[in-house]
Amino acid sequence: MGRSEPTIADCELDAVDERFLARLAHSGDTEAFDELMRRNLPSTYRLCAGMLGVGADAEDATQETFVRTWQSLPRFDTSRPFGPWLRGVAVKVCKQALRKRSGALKRETELTGREADTVAANAEETSDLADEVLEALSQLDDSYRLPLMLFYLEDASVAEVAEALGLSSGATRVRLHRGREMLKAMLEEQGSDEA
Question: Residue ranges of the alpha helices (H) in the chain?
Fold first, then answer.
């Protein structure tokens, strides 16, 4: 009795592309999904950390991203690339986390002012251009920060960024351009010679 579809056990993992793994996971193969998770964990965490800050919030959002991805696999179009779809799920999870914590953070900041002190202390410690860029990036609105993060930090193409954020390619290009201009202006204002 032969099988019509190969399974992850039939494959050399390093030679298997993500589309094949996504098709297997879509059909319920948990080992294929585990491999997709393993491959995408670092980039998903970087994206969540970029949106939420390094630490427990980013770890929770990364975990929630994979839970939601597993639950949503039946709706995944296996003819499309898995990475941009996963990044779209991560962005939605992070936006939801930001909405939840924004009220609490505002109240805490008003009461203690700790966040302002932390930002000031971190700004004094960092003089490296990369740190300056990341700091400036964190100050941008999500509509510009997210496309820049996906494009430059996650090496996503314009089409992949557009898909992840639910935008047209044209709108994505505009946001990337405007985001770069805003970053450049912020860095010039901070006195960075390499802006």
Answer: 18-26, 30-52, 56-72, 82-112, 114-125, 129-139, 142-148, 158-165, 169-190
pLDDT tens for residues 16-27?
788 899 999 999
| Cβ-defined contacts of 118-121 (< 8 Å, 24+) | none
Name the CATH code of domain 13-112 (choices 1.10.1740.10, 2.40.30.10, 1.10.10.10, 1.20.1270.60): 1.10.1740.10
Closest CA to 153 of 176, 184, 123: 176
Q: What's the burial of 174, exposed, middle or buried (CB within 10 Å: 0-12/13-18/19+)?
A: middle
pTM for the structure as a whole = 0.63
CATH fold of the domain at 126-190 = Arc Repressor Mutant, subunit A (1.10.10)
* 121-156 confidence digits (pLDDT tens): 443 443 456 667 777 777 888 888 888 888 887 778
Report yes or no: 62 and 55 within 8 Å, Cβ to Cβ: no
Question: What residue segments make up the domains of the chain, in order of their start?
Answer: 13-112, 126-190
